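Usage

Read records sequentially. Each one opens with the input sequence:
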Amino acid sequence: MDITQEEKQAIASLKRLAKRWPDSLWLFCGGQQGIAIMKVDENGERRTTGLGEGFDGNYVVDQVDMPVEGGDW
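and closes with the structure output:
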């Protein structure tokens, strides 16, 4: 698939970010607008409300408004 130079730069930027992303944060992309930036709990775990139910809103630290698909493929 052909992609533009701008798209290539965006992908490269995301890969650079992934290399320095702190273990204390994770991203949640399901069931909402954009990407929720989440903090892990005191045990270093990704806090959710239960199997298949979503994330624990008490651990949301910010949100990035960009198109995402949170469903299983």
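Summary fields computed downstream for this record:
- The chain has a mean pLDDT of 86.
- The chain has one domain: 22-73.
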